[in-house]
Amino acid sequence: MALEKRLHWSAPRLVSGLRTLSGVADYRPPYRDINFVLDHLVDMDELCQLETYKHTDPETVKGVLEEYGRFVADQVGPLNRPGDEQGSVHDPSTNTVTTPAGFRDAYEQYVSAGWGAVPFPAEHGGGSFPWVMAMAMQEVITSANMAFSMAPLLTQGAIEMLLEHGSEEQKEVYVRRMVTGEWSGTMNLTEPQAGSDVGAVRTRAVKQDDGTYRVTGTKIFITFGEHDMAANIVHLVLARTPDAPPGTKGISCFVVPKFLVNDDGSLGDRNDVRCVSIEHKMGIKASPTCVMSYGEDGGAIGYLIGEENQGMRYMFTMMNNARLSVGLEGLAIA
Ligand SMILES: Cc1cc2nc3c(=O)[nH]c(=O)nc-3n(C[C@H](O)[C@H](O)[C@H](O)COP(=O)(O)OP(=O)(O)OC[C@H]3O[C@@H](n4cnc5c(N)ncnc54)[C@H](O)[C@@H]3O)c2cc1C
């Protein structure tokens, strides 16, 4: 009897262990832990009393999380291992990046369900749910497939930055379609000589008579700088105007879209920005870490965010969002 019991207990564990070893480990969201945090540490009840969140309640939040968990477990998790084996591939003849099989379809489903919109204000097409809910969702997708999760991660930071510091026109043109996920966002800080020392940024931005800027320079390590999942990529780029003071006090921030946007909101000409290579990494190989070249044909068209020389301050909004998310990656992977 005792042996029978032990076998009964250990057989599923053995199967699960063998599945893990053979690489077909299923991801199941840890709802018990998540709900414990939401109930006892966050106090969702009280949070949902706040004016902004009065439209929801803890049960709805948990229901949405479960639905999201099902999507992630069924559609995104199974792409983790094959995605890492296949990796994203850069084609130097066209400067395009193709993500692994299945990524495009899963992203399309992510967009059509509106998962990326959850924490953003309703007036910009968002769900106006608490950020803590978006963080729980982020834990789930990162545990299941960290490489995939990095596209929405950068997009959400770019949205927050534009909502905080962008002009009304910039919000109108870019934010709504980034909230849906149709367009993705990137953060362009790092250059070959400017890693931790961001003040050493050399990318140049020269003002034109029409108020736009021409951006030239090289950025490295740009997560999802080029890919085939979104119709447009909105690059937020740190650059220096010709008379800018040295160091971080002389950095401005620009919106440089992959495709320019026509007055009616449709996509226009290809901007002068391309991905010239991607890093060969030890892991998260499906997330393309790109070397981006701006202005090889005379200058990429960029639009100033806020005021000149204030770019570092603005970019901290995105960097802090990314820092929170990268911290969460540690938890999710653990
Ligand atoms: C997978 C991946 C994705 C990334 N995605 C993006 C992205 O989307 N956008 C983007 O802009 N960047 C991105 N980065 C770049 C990342 O932000 C940089 O790697 C980071 O800023 C550090 O720069 P670095 O790699 O040049 O290292 P370095 O600055 O050369 O630092 C190397 C080491 O020296 C230490 N160090 C540096 N300066 C000092 C000092 N003064 N005193 C003491 N120690 C010091 C650092 O702590 C570090 O341990 C990404 C990097 C990776 C690996």
The ligands found in this model are: flavin-adenine dinucleotide
- The secondary-structure class comes to alpha+beta
The coarse silhouette is globular
Largest pleated sheet: 8 strands, mixed
Classify the fold: give the CATH topology of the largest domain: Butyryl-Coa Dehydrogenase, subunit A, domain 1
- What's the helix-strand series? HHHHHEEHHHHEEEEEEEEEEH
- Average residue pLDDT: 93
Task: Tell me what the structure shows.
This protein is α+β, with helices and mostly antiparallel strands and 334 residues long. It has two domains: 28-165 and 322-333, Butyryl-Coa Dehydrogenase, subunit A, domain 1; 183-314, Beta Barrel (Butyryl-CoA Dehydrogenase, subunit A, domain 2), CATH 2.40.110. It contains ten helices and twelve strands. The strands form three sheets. Strands 3, 4, 5, 6, 7, 10, 11 and 12 form an eight-stranded mixed sheet that branches. A two-stranded antiparallel sheet has the order 1-2. A hairpin with a 5-residue loop joins strand 4 (204-207) and strand 5 (213-223). Helix 7 (131-144) runs antiparallel to helix 8 (146-165). The longest helix has 23 residues, at 311-333. It is globular, with a radius of gyration of 22 Å. The model has no long low-confidence stretch (mean pLDDT 93). Flavin-adenine dinucleotide binds at residues 187-190, 195-196, 221-223, 289.
